Amino acid sequence: MTNHPHALDALAAADAAELRAILLEVCSSPTWADAVAAARPWSDRTALLDANASAMAALAVADLNDAMAGHARIGKPKAGDATSEREQAGIRGVDTALLDELHEANAAYEAKFGHVFLICATGRTADTMLAALRERYPNDAATEAEIVRGELRKINDIRINRLLDEG
User: What residue stretches are annotated with the Oxo-4-hydroxy-4-carboxy-5-ureidoimidazoline decarboxylase domain (predicted)?
Assistant: First the structure.
C-alpha cells in the first residue's frame, strides 16, 4: 500500500459539499458520509479507516439499506461502472450454468431479506460468492444485517484505500 499523504490532506481540506460527494461514491449512505466527514481532520489513513468503522457500526438498518442501494447485484456488475466491474472481476469468464445458479440464489436471498446479497467480492471467485450466499441464506434478518455491516466496512476500506492510493 503506497502512502499518499497529499491525497488525505486534499480530502480533509475539501469543502463540505465536495467531501460529501466523494464519500457518497465510497458508500451511498448519507448518514455514513456525514459521520465520516464529521470525524475530520483525520491524522492519517488509519484514522480515516477508523472513522469508516465507527460510522458503519453506528448505522441503523435503514442506513444499511441506503448503503446497499449503491451496490450491484453479485453476478451482475453495473455496466460501465468501473468500480462495480473491478470488485466483481471474479465472475468474468464464468460459465453460464454457474451464473444461472448465482442469479437463482440471489433471487431467493432478495425475496427473503428484501435487499441484494452483499459481500466484499474483491478477490473472490463466483464459486466462493455462491457458497457464501448459500451459507448465509439460513440466517435471520438481524444476523444477516450484522454480516452485511461487516462486509460494507470491508468494501469501504478497500474503496478508501484506493482513493488515497490514487491521490
Answer: 13-161
